[in-house]
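Our preliminary data section would be incomplete without showing what the modeling component actually yields. Below, a chain of 291 amino acids is followed by its predicted structure, encoded as tokens that our downstream tools consume directly.
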Amino acid sequence: MSYLKAAREKEDHKLSDASTRLGCSRQHLSRLEQGKALATPEQARAIREVYGVPVLEVGHQAKFAALHRELGLSPFQLETVNPDPWRVAYGCWGEKLRTGGLSLARFDWMSHFLPGESSHECYALLQVALAGAEEFLGNPHEWGFDLHPIIDRTGRLLAERMLPGLIYQDSEVDIVLWPQVSMRIDSKHAFRLDCLMLFRIARKVYWIALEFDAGGHDSTKDLYRTQKLGMPIVRITGEEIRQGRVFELLRQRAEEVVRAPREPGPGKSVLRMVVPGRGASWRPQPPTGPR
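Predicted structure:
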């Protein structure tokens, strides 16, 4: 979380001074800045009060393995998010979002950690949050995704690192969204999805590519991408995003896709995927994120 270090240095606070103000050890604050640790809710509140920035909390963590520490990885060192699309989205639809109950703390978290390529895409994610989705951290591979290796913007494998996302649960479905996920299809192809979606219904888990098609979408490549990905695609148009119907249509179309008869061809991946070691009755546990 290099932005946390930048906020501290902007206030001209040394690491030891800042740790005293925040009520944590110098070593822990250093690990927070390096993306090697998560803050407690109390530390997160203190950081927001002192430096005015959100941080990743323990409650956002979906799973943490000792392997992270053993390998010296930085699972919480997330890629930098461009805040401009989020600002545009809030400028255009802020009144609707506030009326719907979106808190400034939640918007700050999403605009700091969830990548969005356009204002429409950001507004779509904000609608999912308003529908009841919670912020969280998770690794799609650890949750059972094995169709393709996920990579970061430099082409490195995701490995054990976490990705920020949104999780929604009710008595009928579980929906998990990871925005702007890139995956290596083969030696020549890599695709980036607007969202990688885990959709659980009737005790079965499916992986779906979610695309937000605002203006300028080139549909001629859709079939090619679908064949290469080997997974179904759900699309939400720009007009539907502006109408505020994202979550309703996302859920409806995901159900239609997974219920449709589908015969996997030679070499194609089967769409039904149960998380390894958890069985068909597994349900992801909701985190406790900021409101």
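The chain has a mean pLDDT of 81. The first strand starts at residue 134 and ends at 138. Preliminary results of this kind motivate Aim 1 of the renewal.
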